[in-house]
Amino acid sequence: MSLLSVENLRVSFTTYGRRTEVLRGVSLSIPEGAQRALVGESGSGKSVTMKAIMGLLPMPPARIEGGRILFEGRDLLTLPERDRIALRGTAMSMVFQDPMSSLNPVWTVGDQLRTILKYADRRLGRDRSSRGRQARVLEVLAQVRMREPERVAASFPIMLSGGMRQRVLIAMALLSQPRLLIADEPGTALDVITQAQILKLLQDLVTEQKLALLMITHNLGVVRQTASYTYLMNQGRIVEEGETQSLFEAPREQYTRDLIAAVPRLTGGAR
Predict the structure, then answer these.
(1) What whole-number distance in Å separates Cα of residue 42 and Cα of residue 248?
(2) How far apart are CA 156 and CA 231, in angstroms?
(3) Which residues contact 182 (CB under 8 A, 6 or more apart)?
(4) CA atoms within 13 A on the CB side of 151
(5) pLDDT in tens, 188-225
(6) Residue 212 DSSP symbol
């Protein structure tokens, strides 16, 4: 059985009195420990799909028109809001995009991580002391390869580089040891070397902690590095899916071929 299964999900938004369907029957599944990618151009519906899974859609103007989101066999769309919130940040967690603006600038990294852990413990009914929370914060910072966890925990975000902030966001997502990790454009605003380091870190963590990973991205290079199976999205639909290597080598849909052909290359006769 899949850890996560999205079945025929349809979502619409109302803007200026007009309702528009933005997800038109999206279906995907992620087995335990698997690495999947959801890829498509901007506006294709990737982030809406992710927010629907996490229960973060603004209701209204968003509305679930139909479908199911099954997590460990339970339909998240029928769960009471309290249970849905309890799952978010515990059994499933998310790495938000744009590390330069996703952290609170007036709190230290340690304060932010301890606060998140405090609420996660409360949801899970765990009685952890302040010292225990601090130990867990330093442990998870070490897991994301921070060389000086104590210094980083005492730092404000402005004191850290973009790559370090991205590692902090990954640490936040790992605090409560989730089973599903959703990464939304984790390389955004980073240089290519730092991006490669972050992608390698994610892959290592997924393997070490036996996590299922859903990578949300428009970057086809990221897809090839991080996912064994890819879903390609266009205008609110999954237009093609398959093993990543096969999809790149022998795409069936014209849209997939056009998207791959649009990737800039360093070789060729053109200037």
Answers:
(1) 20
(2) 37
(3) 50, 53, 54, 92, 93, 94, 95, 213, 214, 216
(4) 6
(5) 666 677 777 777 877 887 888 788 888 888 778 778 77
(6) E
Q: What are the residue ranges spanned by the domains of the chain?
A: 4-261
Please, what is the average pLDDT of the chain? Answer: 84
- φ, ψ of residue 265 to 5 degrees: the values are -125, 155
15 C-beta neighbours (distance < 10 Å), count: 8
Place of tokens 């991080």: 226
The secondary structure of 38-72 as a DSSP string is: EE-STTSSHHHHHHHHHT-S-TTTEEEEEEEEEET
Structure tokens at 190: 């980073």
pTM of the model: 0.83
Top-level CATH class of 4-261? alpha beta
Q: Which of 181, 221, 218 is nearest to 202 (CA)?
A: 181
Q: Are 189 and 98 in contact (CB under 8 A)?
A: yes
